[in-house]
Amino acid sequence: MSMLMSPLAVSPSEAVNETRGFRPRTAGLSGRIPRVLFCYMSVWTPEPMSSSVSPRLFSRKEVDRHHTKDSCWVLLGNRVYDVTGFLRMHPGGEALILRRSGSDISQEIEGPPHRHSENARRWMEQYYIGELDKDSVRDTQVRERRKPQEHTDGMEEQEELSATSRCSKVNFETDLVDWHKPLAWQVGHLREKYDTWVHQPVDRPIRLFQSEFLEASTKTSWYMVPVVWMPLVLYLSWYCYTTLAQEKTRLFITTNYSFMVHKYTFPLIFLFGMFVWSFIEYCIHRFVFHMRPPAHNYYLITLHFLLHGQHHKSPFDGSRLVFPPGLASPVIGAFYLLMQALFPHGLGLSMFVGGLCGYVVYDMIHYYLHYGSPLKGSYMYGLKVYHVKHHFEHQRAGFGITTTFWDRPFNTLIPDESFEGTH
């Protein structure tokens, strides 16, 4: 029989670690591991809880104490979740969860206004830490009963079961791949199971390669993108303007007809280059990143996973949300050669620098959509919600990142959710 957890018997952090089934490997490490890195450090390995071990019980008072950014717990029925590490990632913003800390969010999961996807429910299970003690639940219900009498305990238990049993957390010990080893060379063997597996996201880092050098080459900090590319954007912008100012750049419509490209048209050409990039961004995301590799082709599955599949499997791995400059260079170089081949030097280069700036904006927006907390109702808030739907529910639609413009004519726009109030 489980014992009621006393706050004096074990600290909340110890309870979270034990009930989540994580075992820290701290050999060779000194000092205290920061809490904020808990979900992302590869030194933590999952260890499933034995089915014979009863879940830890928390009193109502204990749950109510965790209502801050440093420690936020919520309930799903009588199940307790520590969602502290998820606050920053939540598409609706951290304030939305903080307002519901310590309370049952079953209605919010079911909707309206938004019914959470199966992947979102499965994701939620990664933060499960235990159960709410039923004795404390009954005491609270007696003191604060506000629902009609027909909502009996039996119905509440049935609702709790329907909300929590449809999805289960990923068991890393019995998953289709061995999470203790690099994944790059394993995923190709999943064959027809790969597509379903890669679109079931997890909140943990991915090790792609055994080689430290190769592994490091696939990661980069977000600020490296503007640090590397924005000086080039600024320099080429000045160069293009001065080149056009020489009034030697002419665009030929026919062999007998041409017109001068004036320096004052540079801002318009620059913006047009950004617009062109938005189309390239859409095409790369849809036709390259979301190609469907044949189930029998080991190498194409592996390539897809390295290009984009790993991002869908671990969408909040902060070290892989932007392209490393070294890997982005061939694509940028190809865009430069294309612009130079199609247009006169000054014009083509002006379009290229606009496209390069568009790429930097794209990578920064993509990072922000995963980790930012935009103001509700703002343009960025809408993009964040849209992109999260792409990750968790509509993987075959919603390919626009900086804008949904190209999703409209190509019929890949994620539809607005029509909620039918039936449970």
From TrEMBL:
Amino acids binding heme: 90, 116
Bilayer-spanning residue ranges: 222-244, 264-284, 321-343, 349-369
Cofactor stoichiometry and binding remark: Binds 2 Zn(2+) ions per subunit that likely form a catalytic dimetal center.
Cleaved signal peptide residues: none
Pathway membership: Lipid metabolism; fatty acid metabolism; Sphingolipid metabolism; galactosylceramide biosynthesis
Catalysed reactions, as listed in the record: hexadecanoate + 2 Fe(II)-[cytochrome b5] + O2 + 2 H(+) = (R)-2-hydroxyhexadecanoate + 2 Fe(III)-[cytochrome b5] + H2O; a 1,2-saturated fatty acid + 2 Fe(II)-[cytochrome b5] + O2 + 2 H(+) = a (R)-2-hydroxy fatty acid + 2 Fe(III)-[cytochrome b5] + H2O; docosanoate + 2 Fe(II)-[cytochrome b5] + O2 + 2 H(+) = 2-hydroxydocosanoate + 2 Fe(III)-[cytochrome b5] + H2O; tetracosanoate + 2 Fe(II)-[cytochrome b5] + O2 + 2 H(+) = (R)-2-hydroxytetracosanoate + 2 Fe(III)-[cytochrome b5] + H2O
Entry keyword Phosphoprotein: no
Keyword Secreted part of the UniProt annotation: no
Domain Cytochrome b5 heme-binding: 55-133
List of residues binding Zn(2+): 285, 290, 308, 311-312, 366, 370, 387, 390-391
Gene3D superfamilies documented for this protein: Cytochrome b5-like heme/steroid binding domain
Membrane topology: Multi-pass membrane protein
Cofactor entry: Zn(2+); Fe cation
Compositionally biased tracts (Basic and acidic residues): 138-154
A GO CC term assigned to this protein in UniProt: endoplasmic reticulum membrane
Chain's role: FA2H is stereospecific for the production of (R)-2-hydroxy fatty acids. Plays an essential role in the synthesis of galactosphingolipids of the myelin sheath. Responsible for the synthesis of sphingolipids and glycosphingolipids involved in the formation of epidermal lamellar bodies critical for skin permeability barrier.
Name of protein: Fatty acid 2-hydroxylase
